[in-house]
Structures are given as C-alpha cells and as structure tokens.
Amino acid sequence: MRRLYFRIYLAVLGSLALTAILAAVSWHLFMRSETWLPRPAFFVEAAARLLPPDSAGDAEIQAAVTHWADASGFDIAVFGRDGRRIADSSDGTLPFEQKDAPRRGRAFDAPHGTVGIALADGRWLITGRPYAERRPFRRFAWLAGLLGIAGAVGIAAYPVVRRITRNLEDLERGVKALGEGDLSARMHISGNDEVAHLAATYNRSAARIEELLAAHKSLLAHASHELRTPLTRLRMGLEQIAPATPRSVRQDMERDIRELDELIEEILLASRLDTKADSGFSPEPVDLVGLAAEECARTGAELEAPSVPLPSVQVDPKLMRRLLRNLLENAIKYGAAAQVDVVVRTAALGATELDVMDRGPGVPAAERDRIFEPFYRIAGMGDSKAGAGLGLALVRAIARVHGATIAYLPRKGGGSVFRLTIPGVAGKQT
Q1: Residues 334, 392 within the same domain
Q2: Does residue 260 share a domain with residue 327?
Q3: CATH of the domain at 121
Q4: Lower CB density within 10 Å: C or N end of the chain?
Q5: Number of domains in the chain
Q6: 25 is a domain residue
Q7: Are the C-beta atoms of 184 and 210 separated by less than 8 Å?
Q8: How many other CB atoms are found less than 10 A from the CB of residue 45?
Q9: Rounded to 5 degrees, what are φ and ψ at 127?
Q10: How far apart are CA 317 and CA 294, in angstroms?
Q11: Per-residue tens of pLDDT for the chain, all 430 residues
C-alpha cells in the first residue's frame, strides 16, 4: 500500500521538477531569441561600413575589428577566403572553422550564440558573446542554482509532509483498534490543524461509544440478575407443587424455565463478545479434532477427520466448545432427524476447516446472509423450533473474536453445511 505521505511528497517533488523543466525550456528559448543574438542584417551593414576592404592590411582590419568589438560588447573575428584568421578580438575563442563554411551557406547561427555572415568579397565575419559568457559554468549556473533551490525545498518539505501524515497514520491505528474492540484506544493530539481536530473528534466519539457500551453491559448484567431471581423462585415453586401438577404441564414449565435461563446466558455472552477485553478471551493450543469428538459423542453426530494428526489451533477452548455445541444443536434441531456429520480438515495457507452438515430443508438463498443476525428467524419456521434466534449469532461472534470465519453453504443432495475456517499462524488476523 502506498503511504499518503509518500504520495504527497512525490507530488511536491513532481511540481518542483515540472517548474525546473519549464524554466529550462523557457531559458533555452529566451537565450536563442533575437533579444540576445544580434540580427544578421546588422553585421552586413556594420561590415560594409566599418571593415576595411580585403586589400587593406591585416593591422588596419584588426584595428577596425577591435574598435567595433569594444563598441558592441561582442567578440568579432574575420576570416579570409582561404580560411586564414585575418583579425580577431576574441583571442581565437570564437568557435568557427573555415571547412564548415560551404555547408553553412551565406549565414549560420552556431551554438553559444555565435553568428556568421559571408561577405561579398568571400571573407567571413563571425561574432558572438564573449567567451566568459559562453563558458558552461556561466551558461548553466543559474539553472544549477534553480535545481539546488528545488532540491532544498524537496528536502525541507519531507519532514513537514511526514508530520502531517504521521498524525493520519495514528488516527488510522486508533480507528482500527476501536474496530477490533479496544474501546480504550485514544489519539495523541498535537498541533492545531484539521488533523488534530479530527483526532479530538475521534477521541470524543470513542469515549462516547465506550460509555454507551458500558451502560449497555451494566443494564444487561442487572437485568440478567433480576430475571434469574424470579426464575429461581419459579423452580422452587415448581418443585413444591410438582405432586399436584400434571406431568405434561410440569415438563412444559421446566422447559420454559430452562429456555429462559439459556436465553439470558446467551444474551450476556453476546454482550461480552462485543470486545475481547471483556469476553474472558484466553486462547491456547487446542486439539480441534479431540474437541469435536467430545461434542459429537455427546450429540450422536458422526465425525470424519484425517488419519494424520492435525496441528493444534490457537483458540479459547470454552468459547470454541460453545460454538461447536451451537452448530451441532442447530443441525440436530433442523436436520429432519437425519444423521449429522462433522468433518475436520486442513485448508490452504495452514488454515483449519470444520464443517457441520445436516440433511434438513436448508436455507433459502435470499436468507443465507441473514441467518447469523441476532433474533432472526427464517420465514415460515414454527416457534417450537425457531428458538430465541441467538445461536448462530453467537457462533459468528465467537468466530470473529478468534479471527475466524463462519459461512453457510448448501449441501449436495440437500441440507446445510456450516463451515468454520480458522486461519493458520501465517494467515491469522491481528
């Protein structure tokens, strides 16, 4: 994943690079423009008026060239028809060779701002900026300075950008911790910018959520206590009136009391599983095949496991036993009195899979994503079978607290498959 600070920093560097490129292009165009280069017509006119004819002596021509160079500020050289350098104010630094004259034609615009004109008598007049101005260092010094400034800005921008995005990364870690159930996660607030205000808002929201969940759990704890007290009195009263109560009525009352007690226990467990900190979650290495064998023996389900021993899984044994028990009881309840099968095997990336399969009517495709919701009942299912609707919700909550997944799959030939996938050490979620 590309970090935000890196993307911002690349944007800053890209902007600086684009600025430098545009400056270099404009500089090149500007330096090649006629603002810096004398017009060829000027040379022709100047040569006609100021240069002595070819018949004059070299000294006279040199004096004229020196005088013109001092007046114009440019280096000037005159070459004869045979390529001989007749006069030169540049001490031989003007870049021109007579052998290049034929391919240049009557005039040329050479590098470093050098301009040449062929005179009517066959001589060549060459002029250009002084050598000191044509040296590479002087020519590119300002561009190097511009690049140096861009580099300094880039270096100085890094800690600024990194500081901004570091606060965002802290906020990301806090939100992630909150999503994983750590309600005490808070952000360290530094600065007075938008990110700091966002961190302060997050802290207030997290504190409010923690407060609401604490009140919710407190309410459930008190409600469960208050509900179990009358349930205990009902049991005691039922024992006292048992001889005078018909057996069928007494059995119905006992079943109702037992279901109420189980419902209260499931509600409390679901509430504790909201966060790992309050759920009593304590994982340890567990032989999942052995645990499944015990629960299958209790319910009469058929267990299928590989002949090679499977590696232990890092789970909470009490919670995992409750998960298996809920799946098995659900399969027995809706399995149409058919055999319930349990399969344990290894999967990709070192994961362990456990399937609980029945031959019941199955779940309609439109409701398969909702059967794990609390208190959800499949349409058309009678209340005598439906239960409280918390069994599968607890299964999903227990799976999540282990970093595992639970999924419903239709069974080939009819029925249902509930597949629990527990990741291995390499793929375990943190």
Answers
A1: yes
A2: no
A3: 3.30.450
A4: N
A5: 3
A6: no
A7: yes
A8: 11
A9: -145, 155
A10: 12
A11: 456 667 677 777 777 777 777 777 666 655 544 444 445 456 556 665 678 888 888 888 888 888 888 877 778 888 887 778 888 888 777 766 555 554 555 556 555 557 777 777 878 888 877 766 655 545 566 667 777 777 777 787 777 777 777 777 888 888 888 877 777 788 777 777 677 788 888 888 888 888 887 777 777 666 766 777 777 777 777 777 767 677 777 777 777 777 777 777 777 777 777 655 555 678 899 999 999 999 999 999 999 998 888 989 999 999 999 999 999 998 998 887 889 999 999 988 889 999 999 998 888 888 888 888 877 777 655 444 455 567 888 899 899 888 899 999 999 989 999 999 999 864 454 3
- In this structure, are 256 and 348 located in the same domain? no
* 388 and 334 share one domain: yes
Segment 13-16 long-range contacts (CB within 8 Å, at least 24 positions apart): 13/154, 13/157, 16/150, 16/153, 16/154
Q: Which domain holds residue 230?
A: 211-272
Pairing of strands 85-88, 341-346: unpaired
- Report yes or no on 55 lying in a domain: yes
Question: What are the backbone angles phi and psi of residue 393, rounded to the nearest 5°?
Answer: -60, -40
The secondary structure of the chain in percent helix, strand, coil, rounded to multiples of 5, reads 55, 15, 30
Place of tokens 């349930």: 231
Q: Is residue 246 part of a domain?
A: yes
DSSP E strand boundaries for 12-79: 75-79
Rg (CA), the chain: 45
| Same domain flag for 293 and 417 | yes
User: Where is 28: in which H helix or E strand?
Assistant: helix 4-31
Instruction: Report the alpha-carbon distance of residue 241 to residue 258 in Å, rounded.
Output: 18
Give the position of tokens 């302060």: 200
- Within this chain, do residues 224 and 327 fall inside the same structural domain, yes or no? no
Residue 116 lies in a domain: yes
Both tokens of residue 40? 């060829």
